[in-house]
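Tutorial handout. Part one gives the primary structure; part two gives the three-dimensional structure as tokens.
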Amino acid sequence: MSLTTKRALADSFERLLSKRSFDKITVKDIVEDCGVNRQTFYYHFHDIYDLIDWIFQDAADHIDEGTMDYNDWTTGLERLFRFLQDNRVLILNAYNSINHEVVADYIEKGLRPYCAVIVQHQAEQTKDVSPEDVEFVTEIFSLAATGLVTRWVGHQMRVDDSYMRSMDKFKIAMSGAIQLMLDNLGREHHK
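Part two.
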């Protein structure tokens, strides 16, 4: 029941976002649209930001990891971009209504676990790489991906030639770069 109520509150919030900006939506608006009382909202969420955090986390949890090809991480990145496009209204509304850094943090939270899995998979192919080095490479990869995604969101998520060139360049730049970083860090341990 709890998850159903959270989902209903999230659906109401997203429905309201299609009609007005984030900063014009109140808890009262959400509960009226959802048909529940304020106590129900506050039982599940501290505030609207907590609701947004849950929406992003819930959505990130539902990106299909079961078909992830660790040797072709670009497929997963493209899947993430499709997910962001599917949630374009929510993301752009949040980006244009609240601090851009907050939205970048949400994007990074969604990307980081995915990046960590990719780096960890590649680290298993590397000798003498420490957990700290794996974390360091994960941070570099996730910050680079977050920067690319945040810049795209800032450009209103347009899928044009510029977007396609950026995606292609990112794929080329990162292809092999993760393994190279891990190998270099692993070799550093032998010195």
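Part three, for discussion. The longest helix spans residues 100-123. Residues 63-188 form one domain.
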